[in-house]
């Protein structure tokens, strides 16, 4: 089967290749790229894939979404192997038991270079960018201008470091990450600024995260600048990020089966969510044939997704600052992809173009002053076939970190994002009318060392607890001793940023 990509908003047929979907990121009509068809896993995959390594599984899944004439088998294998060689666990994403409950399991996604789940995707995206650029440039003649990408991004923490570690030292790629001075945690700042590779640049910008994000938008909108420097993004709507995340749903399913030693089980996945990228990969896994009973959206007090699933109304609200900052969002950008499939199943009458038309109307309503839209009863019904949800408060987050530490034999320490997931599990286990063989896999999205303030708030009263000894890995402890590369930006305006970018680019050894 040949695989092409289309936009969630197009009301006419405009298909693009995998490469174009990855390099451009966003469709011209403002929509998100989705595969023209969701491929099915092979008929006997539950047997055939059961004993594959994470890397072999990733290859088999990605192969179904990328045509062989775009990336041949040997290259795709190499990309996958290289991307996951940087992980500290041989399983890449190990499944561990939370022994305070019989049927509760934690999928640890934080064993990559920056200790957060975004590495699973961004390690792959970095290698993919390099692969496409190298191939384009290999066919150029002496003296002909090379294809380059200048990635510009804003971060309030996790995405910046994961992007930096994904793109460091990649040929023909330069990276500029902006963050608000004094408003990211010291550890997160160290993670970003101690990468001194030639092609990596961190800008500490006097201002807020919104100022940084607005600068990024302005850089993108400056056509002349963009034409010269080929500005690119690696934000959460890039299709390659979703694709790379599908693997761990399959892998953890097989891990669970081995750990409980039975074929006879149901599984629900609980996913701490912000932009809906992580959980969306679970939706694709389910549609490919993986027997997932339910996906549960775990939100903090920024609970637009929970409100939507409860009411069918998607409405913006101001962002609150919570204990799980990587999930502090106003709207969930990837939700549009999931919604597209739900509309197509219902009001879209299985017609791609009619679905795109309905989606466009919803999205203009969302970006109008009204800031909301409501889907039909049929569409919300369809969404509820896939999703359950919960909203978790700061107090609950802290209590769960405490209780998990206290009630597990190995004194397990959760980070606040993972604690939002576990709190949601605890709300559902028992309350949902599950069968006795229903298991919960809760996704753990960050290492607790990255969020020392909340973890210490929860645990410092326990006798014998020490952050230094029990939480902080040696590798992160050492960051504070390494040389730093930062450029301070005093004035958050477009001209200042652009001239800083040009100056830094000229210093790179090509
Ligand atoms: C990005 C992030 C999330 C949210 O993931 P989405 O794909 O945006 O839903 C949750 N936890 C951590 C630690 C993250 O970095």
UniProtKB/TrEMBL annotation:
* CDD domains xref list: Thr-synth_2 (cd01560)
**Keyword terms of this UniProt record:** Amino-acid biosynthesis, Lyase, Pyridoxal phosphate
| BP terms from Gene Ontology | threonine biosynthetic process
Task: Decide whether keyword Lyase is in the record.
Answer: yes
Cofactor dependence: pyridoxal 5'-phosphate
What PROSITE patterns is this protein classified in? DEHYDRATASE_SER_THR
Threonine synthase N-terminal domain segment(s): 5-84
Q: Tell me, what is one Gene Ontology molecular-function annotation carried by this entry?
A: pyridoxal phosphate binding
| Gene3D superfamilies noted in UniProt | 3.40.50.1100, Threonine synthase, N-terminal domain (3.90.1380.10)
Q: Which InterPro entries match?
A: Ser/Thr_deHydtase_PyrdxlP-BS, Thr_synth_N, Thr_synth_N_sf, Thr_synthase-like, Threonine_Synthase, TrpB-like_PALP_sf
A Pfam family the protein falls into: THR4_C
Q: Which residues carry this modification: N6-(pyridoxal phosphate)lysine?
A: 118
| Pathway connected to this protein | Amino-acid biosynthesis
The UniProt entry's sequence similarity note says: Belongs to the threonine synthase family.
Q: What is this protein called?
A: Threonine synthase
Q: Which organism is it from?
A: Pichia californica
